[in-house]
Design brief:
Layout: E1 17-19, E2 22-24, E3 31-35, E4 42-47, H1 51-68, H2 73-89, H3 91-102, H4 106-126, E5 133-139, E6 142-150, E7 153-157, H5 165-177, E8 180-184, H6 190-203, E9 210-212, H7 218-227, E10 231-237, H8 240-251, E11 256-260, E12 265-269, H9 275-287, E13 297-303, H10 307-319, H11 339-354, E14 358-361, E15 376-379, E16 396-402, H12 405-413, E17 420-424, H13 428-437, E18 442-445, E19 464-465, E20 478-486
Parallel strand pairs: 7-8, 7-10, 8-9, 10-11, 12-13, 12-17, 13-16, 15-16, 17-18
Antiparallel strand pairs: 1-2, 3-4, 5-6, 6-20, 11-19, 14-15
Helix pairs in contact: 1-7, 2-4, 2-6, 3-4, 3-6, 4-5, 9-10
The chain binds succinic acid.
């Protein structure tokens, strides 16, 4: 028995897959249950699809693509803008759905609805700027040009931590570029994906352009998407481990890939930092979404002279966080996504303490039970702690003390990942030096949040390939065609 979710716009609550413009059950009639991580209550019974439905969706997407690639850019613009407006108009319901399936506090969820919508608005505009180039000086008897064309059907695989944004950040540029998409959302948060598809349908999106395949068998849908020669591109956000599998599978049909993978973000506090700015930035970076983002500060490196003052302020600020159900007033830290996540975070903390770290705050599952974990600060974290190589994905802040700028940079760069890095300093020469020395796709300087539609989100090293957002995001969905026309 699933519990009803109170929504003003009832059409946003869907539980079937969305193929060729229709809500459909799995052919096997199989379903899976989505539960609220804050209380373990089942909230929806969702169609459990597989390879067969994925192939149907790919076929529908290919037919839709053949028409859509010819659509005038103004038509794409007005469709995307209608979708944008509908997302904004339904902000409260979308936020409520997100809180009950994902757990983040309501204010964060409402913020994510805007964050997600802005990518639709941004790429509606960017579609107008897909320029090719003519090299007029090449020869008086020839025209040399290159143009851009949509890649075709795109397979999109998204995670649970930003159930709306991780979809719009990929789907909006794909649609603006002239592509069609088959989306596999996380089995933990499919309801937000369905609501987005319903709003796209209400905006007038042609059938087959956006397809959603819910499943709790990610491998079967991933295999079908990567095996298909019709799918010309895979865009994935998730773990480095799964990203590598999708890249290997995509090699057989030489698909293009965009990979937004795991991080291990250092947050460096230099002696020259301003304490208030630093604490504000760190709180935002560390505790956003209960620490469950790929760009959350994973290792907090603090220079020795500022260390004691920093620790004092950080503990005081962290003690003010309110843990609870995201629908309750004033809650700033929601639950972790599920029991496995809680166990993983707990094991990390216990392992680190057993290696000699000290617990300054929290350190245990929260007394609220379910999947809540106490905001935690650990100090004297040894170099061989699991935090130095793995993502925590929880509200845990491990502190590492260092002496010189070179040491801080060396520890920060000592990772196979390179998604995000942060540092705080008020010394402009140091800011320039450290910004150059850090090997990371994105850097926050005196700030803990840099995610927005203007910036090119993405990593280097094992954190990924490609960029999302900015004027670069749409290029991920465009092929280049070079043509030389001789007049002789
Ligand atoms: C992520 O965790 O993958 C995305 C975070 C963001 O968009 O800021």
């Amino acid at each position: 028995m699933t519990k009803n979710i109170e929504l003003q716009n009832k059409s946003l609550f869907q539980t079937q897959g969305f193929i060729n413009g229709e809500w459909v059950d799995a052919q096997s009639k199989k379903t899976f249950i989505v539960t609220n991580p804050a209380n373990d209550v089942p909230i929806a019974e969702v169609a459990n699809m597989g390879a067969q439905e994925t192939n149907q969706a790919i076929e529908a997407a290919e037919i839709a693509f053949q028409q859509w690639k010819l659509s005038p850019i103004k038509e794409r613009y007005s469709l995307l803008m209608k979708w944008y407006q509908l997302i904004m108009d339904n902000q409260k319901d979308l936020a409520t759905l997100m809180v009950v399936e994902q757990g983040k506090p309501y204010a964060e969820a409402a913020g994510e609805v805007i964050y997600a919508a802005t990518f639709v608005q941004w790429f509606a505009e960017q579609g107008k700027r897909m320029n090719g180039v003519v090299k007029s000086a090449f020869s008086p008897n020839a025209e040399l040009k290159y143009t851009k064309e949509p890649v075709g059907v795109v397979g999109i695989v998204t995670p649970w931590n930003f159930p709306l944004t991780m979809i719009t950040r990929k789907v909006a540029p794909a649609i603006a570029a002239g592509c069609s998409v088959v989306v596999k959302p996380s089995e933990l948060t499919p309801l937000s994906a369905f609501a987005l598809a319903e709003l796209a349908q209400q905006a007038g999106m042609p059938k087959g352009l956006i397809n959603i395949i819910p499943t709790d068998d990610a491998a079967s849908v991933g295999n079908a998407l990567t095996a298909s020669a019709t799918v010309r591109k895979i865009s994935f956000t998730g773990s480095t481990r799964v990203g590598k599998i999708l890249m290997k599978q995509s090699a057989d049909t030489v698909k293009r890939t965009s990979m937004e993978l795991g991080g291990n973000a250092p947050f460096i506090v230099f002696d020259s930092a301003d304490i208030n700015t630093t604490i504000e930035a760190l709180m935002a970076s560390k505790f956003r979404n209960a620490g469950q983002t790929c760009v959350c500060a994973n290792r907090i490196l603090v220079q020795s002279k500022i260390y004691d003052e920093f620790v004092d302020s950080f503990i005081k600020k962290t003690q003010q966080l309110k843990v609870g159900n995201g629908l309750e007033e004033g809650v700033t830290i929601g639950p972790l996504i599920n029991k496995q996540a809680l166990e993983k975070v707990d094991t990390f903390v216990q392992n680190t303490l057993s290696k000699g770290a000290e617990c300054l705050l929290g350190g245990k599952p929260h007394e609220l039970g379910f999947t809540f974990f106490q905001p935690t600060i650990l100090s004297n974290v040894p170099q061989d702690s699991p935090y130095n190589c793995e993502e925590i994905f929880g509200p845990v802040a491990p502190l590492i003390k260092f002496d010189t700028e070179e040491q801080g940079i060396a520890i920060a760069n000592d990772t196979v990942h390179g998604l995000a890095a942060y540092f705080c300093s008020q010394d402009y020469r140091q800011i320039n030096r450290v910004n150059q020395a850090l090997r990371s796709g994105m850097i926050g300087i005196n700030t803990g949040i840099f995610s927005n539609e203007f910036g090119p989100f993405g990593g280097v090293k094992e954190s990924g390939i490609g960029r999302e957002g900015s004027e670069l995001g749409i290029e991920e969905y465009l092929d280049i065609k070079y043509s030389l026309l001789s007049f002789q």
